[in-house]
Structure formats: structure tokens, C-alpha cells
Amino acid sequence: MAGISRDEVLHVARLARLELSDDEVAKFQEQLSAILEAVSKVSELELGDVPPTAHPLEIANAWGEDEPRESLPLDDVFANAPDRDDDHFRVPPA
Amino acid sequence: MTGLDTLRLTAEGAKKLLDAREISGAELFAAYAERDDDLHAYLHRCPDPGGDGIPIAIKDVIGTKGIPTTAGSKMLEHYVPVYDATVVARCKQHGLRTLGKTNTDEFAMGSSTENSAYGPTRNPWDPTRVPGGSGGGSAAAVSGGLAPWALGSDTGGSIKQPAALCGNVGLRPTYGTVSRFGVVAFASSLDQVGPVAKNVRDCAYLYSIIAGRDANDTTTTDVPPVELPTAEDLKGLRIGVPKEMNEAEGIEPGVRDAVRRALELAESLGAEVGECSLPHSVSYGLACYYLVAPAEASSNLGRYDGVRYGLRSDGADFREMIMRTRDAGFGDEPKRRIMIGTYALSSGYYDAYYGTAQRVRTVIRREHDAAFERFDLLVSPTSPTVAFRLGEKTADPLAMYLSDLLTIPSCVAGLPGLNIPAGLSEGLPVGLQLVGRQFAENTLFRAGHALEQAIGFDVVPERLR
């Protein structure tokens, strides 16, 4: 594992919608390289036909009753909104 | 002041005083609320809501209606939930009164509480040392006389490891026994809410209040009735000592000694103690966890986009607003984990990292299943070390991750784990970890209670006696 390049850090940050400063890019490049080297250890094991575990309990589907319930009042829904326009969350132009 | 010894008083003891009308509900609440929080256990303290229930501290990743819930992050600095988490609603139904919201590593990501955006919590035994994390605030509150008990949350050790470092009792319940509805999500296949207390009986009682199926969390299941432990022997119990968990590199000699003494006591109480093996759980557990948890975190933390709640930074357009919001709102540790997770899930790397980690997770589960064919409980140190110094590991994320080396395997396998204090090493608490089969909390309580009586650990930090 050769570590992660500066371009890869910038690529991942873009995918994750993180705007990083130049100092952060340099720091994270070093730290993420060390972490990725450590976690790459998982590839050492001979796994054969071992299936993946996504969830520790053996439950498949959990069905709920299809009954209407009260929703939160709109003023509660918007109580923490950075910017509200009537019944909408307002954001800068896309 | 009422003269109550909040450092020593258990929740059960407080209830007896209330029932006998030796103190009022208001006096009891005030005894905790008026105590100076020089440990910075709390991010927010609450006024007495009235009533005569037992007070409780709640980790700040757990949503509380009308009470700020920051998850230790600037992202949620001004966030005030409009509904209670199910666990909080259950506590209220039992009359419990919220003393305040306890400090946590940002989004519960850390092992020392130093990743909190609001500054670290200090260890009640030695304020120059960390209380562990991420639930260092809840653990410090309980051991520092600031709460009789508390709620924490645990993804890879955030209840058990702080309980070990602060010298109290913490349970990470079986995955699926306690609702996460209303709890700030970190890694959804691992996150569990659980109790922190001064002794095992209180821990079991608080667990009985919060556990159970919740229609709002479809990962919850029915839970066997909780039995408050009374037995003082361990007759008929088979205790396995996984050699990899007890001989791992980095376990301090004083920690090893305290655990060995506890195992000798267990034998004298009638338990059958034998060695066993978890061949890959320790050597590959950390790598597995630090792929699975960041992958899930990168998805869960995608919701912080400055649109519906939380911080918003200015930006000329939608995309710039989101990127600036996330840069300003997240501290270094969430950023690291989001990037590791995004990388591990990205095209071309998914199978090699996330896919492989999920298969290693199966290996770890099967190893535990095999050990439980011969044993009822698995015992090891909770943390390889006693509480370390503030600042000692903050510059090296990997060194910090190793704090969770011994708590992670059972978390990955979805198993319940209990920390009880095993004694002291160099004047600081050593934690003993008991791991059981899924839904075997009653076995943990029974063994933990009997051992606790035999060990006779004084939960009050020496410097405060």
C-alpha cells in the first residue's frame, strides 16, 4: 500500500463535499495514508467463500402496520432550519 | 446542600431515600445540580423539571426535546430537537429527570473525549488524564458525583472504555435491544445506547428501563425480561479467557495483573475458568472496524448539508454552500472518517476495502460463536491501558484507535459487553470486560454483580475521598 496521493485526497474530499484548505490536504494526506495502510490488513486473510456481514442480527424484513399517523407540525419541522421560505427550505441557487 | 454524598450514592440508594421520604425530589436533584463541574463532564446542565424521580445525565448524541443536542460538534451548536429520542421518552415515563447533556467526542468519534468541539472532559481520578471516549462526559459525571447514572452510546467501545478508565460500570447492550430512534447516527450497524452506573444492579435497572422493541427503530427486537442480580457466587458458569485478548501487545502489566486477580476470584466463587482462542478477532478486528464504521459514517454524515438543520455557511451557489458548511462544521476526526469511508466505498476500491471488511466481520462473528459453544462468558481487559494523559495521543489518530483494540471485536460481532472495575494500577482504575452471547445481558449482570462484591472496588476516586 503506497499511501494516498494529494490528488486522491482532493478527489475523495470532493466526493464527500468537503472543502479543504491546503494545510488540511497535506495533513490528511499523511494521516489517511497511515490509516489506510493499517486497515489494508483485512486483505491478508484467506477468506474463501466467507459471506459478508452487513448487520449483526438475523432479522430480514421488519414490517410496520400501514396506518396513518400524525406528522410533526410544520413549525417544528422548520424549527432548526437555517433559512425558511413559507413551507420550503430556502437554499442558494443550484 | 443536603449533605448527600453524591460520589457514593447509587440510584437504588437514592430511590430508597426518596421512598422513605428522607429527602425530597428537589433536594436530590439539587445535590447533583449544585456540584461544581470542574471536570467539564457536561456541555449543558438543566433546571429541575420537578417531580421526585431519580436524576440522570444523558450523552449529548441523544436527542432531548427542547434541550440543545450538539453531538460535541459545531455542526449542531444551535440544534434543539423537537422530539425526544425513544430512550429519553422511556426514562421520562419512569420519572427520571435530566440533569444535563454530557460531553462526547464529536459525533462519538474518539477514545478520549478530546475530539469534542467544546473542549475535553477530565478524568475524576486524575484531572491531567482523559476519561476515555467517546462517552467520557457520562463516565466522568457518574464517577465525579455529578450524576447517579447516565446514558451513553457505544459504536466500538464508547461506553465500555470510558467506564474502564473512570472506574465505573458500563454496558454495551446486544445490538437491537435498545432503540436508536432520535440518536445522532454514527455507524448504524454498530451503534447502541446503553447505561453507565456506579454498580451492576443500577446498570441492570437502567437497562431494563431503556431496552425493548420500538416501532420507530426497525432494528430493535423483543428483549428477555431483565433480572436484577442478587447471587454472590458463580457456580455453574464457564468463563473463557481468549488468549489473544489477554496477551495482546500493549496491555500494561498492571492491567494484566488486575485481570488475573479477578479471574482467580471468579474461580474461588465457583466459576470454571479455561483458556480459549479468537484467532483473528484481535489482529483483524481494528482494521475491520475502521473500514466498516467510517464507511457507514460517511453515509450517515451526508445529511449535514446546511439545508434542513444545523450549521450553514455562506456560499455563492448550492454546492459551494454545502462544501463550506461541511468544512466549517466538522472537526478533524469526522473529516478523517468521512474521507476514509468515502474512499473505501468509492468505485474501484469497494470490494478491496468495504466488501472485504464485511467478510472479515463474518470471521469474527464465527470465532465468537465457536468460543460460546464451550463458555458462557469471555473475559479480558476492557482497555489495554489505564487512563492516559490529555494530549498524549491527539497527534496520532492510529495510536488513539488502538485504545479500542479489545472492545471492538465483540462490538463488530453484535455481542453485549459489560465493564466492571477490577482494581487499580498506579492509582488508576483498571476495567474488566465481560462479553456474553447475544441477549445474554442477565448472565453479564449476574457475573458482574458477584465479581463486583468479591473485588470490593471503591468507586469514589481516591483524591475525592
Task: Give the tally of structural domains of chain B.
Answer: 1
Shape field of chain A: flat
Query: Based on helices, strands and strand pairing, what is the structural class of chain B?
Result: alpha/beta
Give Rg of chain B in angstroms: 21 Å
Q: Hey, roughly how much beta strand do the residues of chain A contain?
A: under 5%
CATH topology of chain B: Amidase signature (AS) enzymes
CATH topology of the domain at 1-45 in chain A: Histone, subunit A
The number of E-state strands of chain A comes to 2
Low-confidence segments of chain B, given as residue ranges, are: none
Order of helical and strand elements of chain A:
HHHEE
Going by CATH, the homologous superfamily of the domain at 1-45 in chain A would be Glu-tRNAGln amidotransferase C subunit, N-terminal domain
Keywords:
heterodimer; A: 94 residues; mainly alpha; Histone, subunit A; 2 strands; flat; B: 465 residues; alpha/beta; Amidase signature (AS) enzymes; eleven-stranded mixed beta sheet; 11 strands; globular
Structural account:
The complex is a heterodimer of chains A (94) and B (465). Chain A has three helices and two strands; from the N terminus they run αααββ. In chain A, strands 1-2 form a two-stranded antiparallel sheet. Chain A has a domain of 45 residues: Histone, subunit A (Orthogonal Bundle). Chain A is mainly α and 94 residues long. Chain B has 465 residues and is of the alpha/beta class. Chain B has one domain: Amidase signature (AS) enzymes. Chain B has 15 helices and eleven strands. In chain B, strands 1-3-2-4-6-5-10-11-9-7-8 form an eleven-stranded mixed β-sheet, with helices on both faces. In chain B, strand 10 and strand 11 form a beta hairpin. In chain B, helix 4 runs parallel beside helix 5, helix 9 crosses helix 11 and helix 9 crosses helix 12. The radius of gyration of chain B is 21 Å and the shape is globular. Chain B starts with 10 loop residues before the first helix and ends in a 10-residue tail after the last helix. At the A-B interface, helix 1 and helix 2 of A face helix 9, helix 10, helix 11, helix 12 and helix 13 of B.
